[in-house]
Design brief:
By secondary structure, this protein is an alpha+beta fold. Helix content is about 45%, strand content about 15%. Strands 2, 3, 4, 6, 7, 8, 9 and 10 form an eight-stranded mixed sheet that branches. Helix 1 runs antiparallel to helix 2 and helix 3 runs antiparallel to helix 4. The two termini are about 40 Å apart. The N terminus and C terminus are likely disordered.
């Protein structure tokens, strides 16, 4: 069974798309001279700002984070704020030079992130960036409220006088935080900047009169065996996709028949997530998984490597109560976990499960592998003929959110024993 993603235009993404539409309505309202232009724009801007908080809260709370949302959400934020500032400049309210500096900061940070992505590096968002956004929203709200009070005939009230006299200071606060947040971002990522400045120019292309040989493009998507290889962790396709969409950040494993007396071991700190169809039992996953992933009707033969994982914690769960506390952290059904927990096919095996907390990244161009006998069998680890060294990748869960979810998982299994032996360091729950 191959998988296709369920529709990504979920509720958080619908709110983001709605915010993009509200951005256009707000700018249109401020672009024409009519009696309640600022009042209408104030209402739209306040509602759009609220949806910015709401869609993120819903996406994180319900595990509905998608690639589309990661693209549209920051884009909608920038369009909303920059559009409002430009409109206020046109009305003679916002200082043009301040707005130019604020916009320049946004373009510079976006450029730095693109450079980092080209170098296969991921730049985490800084907390001060949220303060920057809040300060800009407050400054815009103050200006729109001041204009609205004038439209409603309340320009002589104490509130109107206060906002009119103090709005310039709100812009100063927003400007200072904006510049400061940009400086902090560049300072913390100085290595990327220095590396970019020191990069030699690309060598010029030597022209040749000879015609290049034709390439059969049909053969390009499939990765043939090469000298490079990397470890891969076999897991149900549905679970791999849940990991790849950021819906869960844990793996639970007992060990396959082919793994010998020692059973499963956390051998590798970094590995591909290999989507296996062998022994996948769709009916033993949670019903909620259907909202995230839908089974496709076509049955493909090739394997797609699109995600790799880095282990942050490797823990052995010897008590079923500890497994039960992770109920909200994964999409396996209770039946399959109880089967794995109690599985003691070989002498010396104990009841329990290995827990791996993993940071998953998605590559921009997936690798496609043809079936091979090396990928078969009841075993957790296999070697694949491709690695991630030349892939451009991005984390599927933002750093701040991952840290929060990891802390909750560790707290839920706080009485757990240390991880079993393996190449990874033993990690005790805190």
């Amino acid at each position: 069974m191959t998988l296709r993603r369920a529709p990504t235009l979920n509720l958080p993404n619908q709110l983001t798309v709605a915010r993009l539409g509200m951005c256009g309505l707000m700018i249109i309202s401020l672009s024409f001279d009519w009696p309640y232009a600022a009042t209408t724009a104030l209402f739209i801007f306040a509602l759009a700002s609220f949806t910015d908080w709401l869609d993120g809260s819903i996406a994180r709370g319900r595990n509905l984070v998608t690639d589309l949302g990661k693209l549209l959400d920051p884009l909608a934020d920038k369009i909303l704020i920059i559009g409002a500032l430009i409109a206020l400049v046109a009305r003679g309210v916002a200082p043009m030079w301040m707005v130019v500096i604020i916009m320049s900061r946004e373009f510079l940070i976006s450029g730095l992130r693109q450079i980092a992505a080209h170098k296969q590096k991921i730049l985490a968002a800084e907390r001060v960036g949220k303060h920057k956004t809040i300060s800009q929203i407050v400054a815009i709200l103050v200006s729109l409220t001041t204009l609205s009070l004038g439209e409603l005939g309340w320009q002589d009230t104490a509130l109107a006088h206060f906002l009119g006299a103090s709005q310039i200071w709100f812009y100063w606060i927003a400007l200072i935080i904006t510049v400061l947040s940009g400086a902090i971002y560049f300072w913390k990522n100085a290595a990327v900047v220095n590396e970019t400045l020191s990069d030699p120019p690309e060598s010029s292309v030597v022209k040749s009169d000879s015609k290049p040989e034709a390439v059969d493009e049909a053969t390009l998507p499939v990765d043939e065996p090469a000298t490079l290889s990397a470890p891969a962790f076999k897991e149900w396709e549905a679970i791999v996709e849940a990991l790849g969409q950021g819906a869960q950040i844990i793996l639970l494993r007992k060990g396959g028949i082919a793994e010998g007396r020692a059973g499963f071991q956390a051998k590798h700190p970094k590995f591909w997530l290999f989507p296996t169809r062998y022994h996948q039992q769709w009916e033993k996953t949670k019903p909620e998984l259907r909202r995230l992933i839908a089974p496709a009707t076509d049955a493909g033969k090739d394997f797609t490597l699109q995600y790799f994982a880095e282990v942050t914690d490797a823990i052995y769960l010897s008590s079923w109560d500890q497994v039960a506390r992770l109920e909200d952290a994964h999409y396996w059904g209770e039946e399959i976990l109880r089967e794995r927990f109690g599985y003691q096919d070989r002498p010396g095996m104990e009841a329990g499960l290995h827990l791996l907390i993993v940071r998953v990244s998605k590559i921009n161009l997936p690798h496609r592998l043809q079936p091979s006998p090396d990928y078969e069998g009841c075993k957790s680890w296999i070697d694949v003929p491709v690695d991630w060294s030349k892939d451009i990748a991005a984390h599927v869960v933002r750093t701040e959110e991952f840290t929060t979810r990891r802390s909750r998982i560790l707290a839920a299994v706080a009485t757990v024993a240390v991880s079993s032996s393996g190449s990874l360091p033993k990690v005790a729950a805190v």
